[in-house]
């Protein structure tokens, strides 16, 4: 997949995002985006389940997977061949050994599908996300334990994730901020890559 976007010397991360969040638009070309979407459409995605709740999005995990309620990760099928060039390029861009990006999730967001406020599970480390098909609004809020009579949350920051863009969440963005995705206005896909926590 030789068309994956050219190396950029400067990232275009918006000013008001958490420390540790790095954003790069135009990571891949439009033709590569369509090729990835065609490959995703061949996968057997399943409705996302959170305990007894079934979400509006469909997902499939590779490398490792997590089932809510077990508090453990288990092995999943190996990453398919079409994801390996994406992983290699993402690793090079963010200075991560691609072999350390051992977990991948493919997510389909139908129109109106959101993701609520959360932090990724503690078994995973750095998180890389590639947006496909449509833009979405990613929001951040610093998390702290709620004390009686006080709010546990502060100012909300946000960034538009454009189609074909990629981001990295590590450090503070990964550890002390929550994130969410506002309901999408059009069909959207994302490819998530994660390291395991050392």
The CATH topology? Jelly Rolls
Q: How would you name the oligomeric state of the polypeptide chains in this document?
A: single chain
Please tell me what the overall shape is: globular
| Model regions low in confidence, pLDDT < 50 over at least 5 residues | 2-10
What do the pLDDT scores average to? 88
Q: What is the terminal separation in angstroms?
A: 31 Å
- Provide the spatial order of strands within the biggest beta sheet: 1-11-8-13-6-3-2
Overall CATH architecture: Sandwich
The number of E-state strands comes to: 13
Order of helices and strands: EHEEEEHEEEEEEHEE
CATH level-1 class: Mainly Beta
Q: Specify the structural class.
A: mainly beta
**How many DSSP helices?**
3
Percent helix among the residues? Answer: 10-25%
Cα-atom radius of gyration:
16 Å
Strand content: 35-45%
Could you give a short description of this structure?
The protein has 3 helices and 13 strands, in the order E-H-E-E-E-E-H-E-E-E-E-E-E-H-E-E. With 198 residues, it is mainly beta. The protein has one domain: Jelly Rolls.
């Amino acid at each position: 997949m030789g068309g994956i976007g050219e190396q950029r010397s400067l990232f275009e991360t918006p000013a008001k995002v958490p420390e540790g969040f790095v954003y790069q638009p135009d990571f891949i070309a439009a033709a590569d985006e369509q090729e990835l979407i065609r490959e995703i459409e061949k996968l057997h995605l399943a409705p996302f389940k959170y305990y007894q709740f079934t979400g509006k999005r469909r997902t499939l995990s590779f490398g490792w997977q997590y089932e809510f309620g077990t508090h453990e990760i288990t092995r999943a099928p190996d990453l398919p061949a079409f994801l390996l060039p994406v992983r290699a390029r993402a690793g090079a861009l963010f200075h991560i050994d691609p072999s350390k990006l051992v977990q991948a999730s493919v997510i389909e967001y139908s129109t109106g599908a959101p993701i609520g406020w959360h932090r990724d599970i503690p078994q995973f480390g750095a998180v890389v996300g590639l947006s496909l098909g449509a833009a979405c609004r990613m929001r951040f809020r610093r998390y702290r334990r709620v004390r009686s009579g006080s709010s546990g949350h502060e100012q909300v920051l946000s960034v538009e994730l454009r189609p074909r863009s990629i981001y990295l969440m590590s450090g503070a963005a990964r550890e002390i901020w929550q994130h969410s995705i506002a309901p999408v206005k059009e069909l959207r896909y994302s490819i998530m890559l994660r390291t395991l926590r050392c």
